[in-house]
C-alpha cells in the first residue's frame, strides 16, 4: 500500500508499508504527474518482490531499491572531493622506485608543500584555475627566498612546472579533466645570470663598492676556479677533509665536470683504469631514460682513483658509506652511496675558514671544468660530450672564455687588415 503526501514546501513524499514497516521517501519534485509515476513504479516493484521475481538483498535500503527498479542498494552519494593534499599524496605514492632521482624527488616534495601551504591542503583540486595559479605566483613572489632576497621568478616557474607534472598524471588517471590551467600565467621579469668569473674578477668588482650583499652573493655564485685555483682548492681539501672520501670525489668533479649526484652513484666498475675512462651515469639528459657518457681520466684523477679503489673499495659503490650492523641485517646491505647532504657538509667544513670558503657547493667544480675547457679553446662539441646536458643559458655564461676563437673570428671577418 502506498500513497503521496504533499508538504509545506510543495514537494511530494511517497509513503508506503512493506514487511510491517512504514517507509517515507522524498521525491524532490512538486509535479504531481512525476510523483504519481514514481508511486505506480513502486507498487509494481513491490508486486515483483511479492511474486519472487525480484529479491531485495540483505542490508539494502528498501525504499531506494524499490524506486530504482532494483538497481541501487544504497542511496547514491557523490564521490569525496579531490583535495590538493590528497592529490599530491596520491601522486607521490604512485611513483615507482627509481622514477625520479632522490634530489629531484626531494625538490618536488618541497614545491608541492608550498602549494599546500599557500592554496591549502583542502583546496578543491578539480577547480584549479588560472586565477588560483596567478594568486600563488603573486604570493610566492612576496616571500623570503635565498640569502634574504625574494623568491625568484625562476624558482616559481619550477614550482609551477612540478604541479603541472602532477596535473598531467592526474589527468591521465582520470582524477581531473582538461589541460593544466597555466595558459596566460604571468611572472616578473628575470635577469640573466652573470658569466662565470675568477675570484680575482669577482673581488675586483666588489672592491669598487656599491654592491648590495645579495649582489655580491650572486657574483660568488658565478665563481669558477682556474687550473691553479683548482689545484690549490684540491690540496686544501686533501689536507683538511673530515673524511678521506671527499678528496677523490672532488678530484673527479674538478677533472670531469661530473655532477654531485653522478659522483655519488658511481660504481667501482665504472672506472676503466687501463683505458683511462670513467662512465658517468646521467639522469638529466633524456626524460624517463637512463643515459651515460664516457669521460677520459686526467693523469692526476687516474692516480687518485687507482689509489682510492685499492684501499677503500669495499662494495660496488666507489664512494660509499658503511651501514650500521642493525640496519644492514634488515636491508641485506653493508654499504650504500654516500648521502648528498653529507657530501656537501664534508665540503663546507673542509673549506671553512680558508680563502675559498666563498665556494657555494659542488657545482663550482662543474662550472670550473667547463670554463677551463672553454678557456683552452676546446671544441664546444667535445665540451658537450664530456659534461653532458647543458642549457643554452649555461653555454652563454662561458662563451666569453673562448678568447682565441673569438679573436680569430673577428680577424676573419675583416681580413685582419688595419688601415691608417
List the helices and strands and how they pair.
Blueprint lengths: L1 E5 L5 E7 L2 E6 L5 H19 L11 H6 L16 H11 L7 H18 L10 H13 L10 H20 L26 H9 L5 H9 L5 H14 L5 H11 L3 H5 L6 E2 L4 E6 L8 E6 L2 H14 L7 E3 L2 H7 L3 E3 L2 H12 L11 H13 L4 H8 L4 H5 L6 H11 L7
Helix pairs in contact: 3-4, 4-6, 9-10, 9-14, 10-12, 10-15
Number of helices: 18
What best-fitting shape do the alpha-carbon axes yield?
elongated
Structural Rg: 34 Å
Helix content: 40-55%
CATH topology of the largest domain: hpI Integrase, Chain A
Strand order of the largest sheet: 1-2-3
Helix-strand string:
EEEHHHHHHHHHHHEEEHEHEHHHHH
Which range does the strand content fall in? Answer: 5-15%
Could you list the spans in which at least 5 consecutive residues all have pLDDT below 50?
A: none
CATH-level-2 architecture of the largest domain: Orthogonal Bundle
**Would you state the CATH class of the largest domain?**
Mainly Alpha
Short description:
The protein has 420 residues and is mainly α.
Structure report:
This protein has 420 residues and is mainly α. It folds into 3 domains: 66 residues, no CATH class; 89 residues; 209 residues, hpI Integrase, Chain A, CATH 1.10.443.10. 49% of the residues lie in helices and 9% in strands. It contains 18 helices and 8 strands. The strands form 3 sheets. The chain has a 3-stranded antiparallel β-sheet. A 3-stranded antiparallel β-sheet has the order 4-5-6. It has a two-stranded antiparallel ribbon with strand order 7-8. Strand 1 and strand 2 form a beta hairpin. The longest helix is centred in the middle third of the chain and has 20 residues. The radius of gyration is 34 Å and the shape is elongated. The mean pLDDT is 86.
